[in-house]
Amino acid sequence: MADRITLAGNIIVDNVKTITAWPEKGMLVPITAMKRSPGGAVPNSGIDLKVLDPSVEVAALGKVGADDAGDFVTRFMDDRGLDVSGVRRVEGVPTSFTDVMTLAETGERTFFNMHGADSRLVPEDVDPVVLGGSSIFHLGYLLLLDGLDADDAEYGTKAARLLAKVRAAGIKTSLDIVSEQSDRFARVVRPALKHCDYVVINEVEGSLATGLPAAADCERPSVESLRRICEAMFGLGVKERVVVHCPDLSVSLDRDGGFAALPSLDLPKGWIKGSVGAGDAFCAGMLYSFLKGMSAEEGMRIASCTAAMNLAATDSVSGARPLDDTLELDSRFPRKPVAA
């Protein structure tokens, strides 16, 4: 039986625009390149997974508008082998989109997001009985799914209700969060953690969810600071494994206390063309390791190489490569020194 995973949540069109500098208020800078690409947790991690190992069955579940952007992103996923039968059209609401402003020199990006059809996704749209034999249900991104971020009298949020329903059907659950500047993390994120087997997030999201600093005295995150975040996530209810990643390293903690840390690849100057979708690429690598029952160390090795491949492209998915090509980076580049 083939490995199968369902990815649900944000289906977005990214309008990726490369700029020479970030302007001061009221000033102008040129856009030197522009490209339309799929975005959001479902297309990004889903396509990365499918390219990494075509034998994995990847199903997309979510909502798009009945518009050209919806046609584009659905066709893009279908052409790359994803099962898009779970993608529904919503009349009168646009497909969600993000304008991604990418600095040419550093690859740093800033996002301007339009909430659209994927905000209409609610627990009633997901029937665990028809998830098609999926062993993992991955949901992303909390804080960017209005219908699932909404309050629920019994579970705290609609997302928590959905994840509880999926887990009750015997399917492992996985969660990703958006890096939002807000005070909503405790209200929206924490109820869902109680119904998650796996959580893969970055250090900013981990810090906001737990209230713990990712780095002391404004220094870069250390192994120990990220470990404390992982421990706090288990205290908030995560069941199986927490993985926290940042530009310099990633760490993993499992329910039995097994801990691992791995530095990121030290990429040469000029390698990074953009960082949009890098976190989703890392997440795809970890999801692959969960499907295959790999160790934390092996999973983070794949995930860090998958993220590095993503960084070599300006959009969220065109950097994806098969597993053997992806892992070749591990022997090609050294890994960074990190603080304990």
Name the features.
27% strand; four-stranded mixed β-sheet; 10 helices; globular; UDP-N-acetylmuramoyl-L-alanine:D-glutamate ligase; 340 residues; nine-stranded mixed β-sheet; alpha/beta; single chain
What does this structure look like?
With about 350 residues, the chain is α/β, with parallel strands linked by helices. It has one domain: UDP-N-acetylmuramoyl-L-alanine:D-glutamate ligase (3-Layer(aba) Sandwich), CATH 3.40.1190.20. It is about 30% helix and about 25% strand. It is built from ten helices and 15 strands. The protein has helices at about 40-50, 70-80, 145-150, 160-170, 185-195, 205-210, 225-235, 280-290, 295-310, 325-330; strands at about 5-10, 10-20, 30-40, 55-65, 85-90, 95-105, 110-115, 135-140, 150, 155, 170-175, 200, 240-245, 250-255, 260-265. Strands 5-4-1-8-11-12-13-14-15 form a nine-stranded mixed beta sheet, with helices on both faces. A four-stranded mixed beta sheet has the order 3-2-6-7. Helix 6 crosses helix 7. It starts with a strand and ends in an 8-residue tail after the last helix.
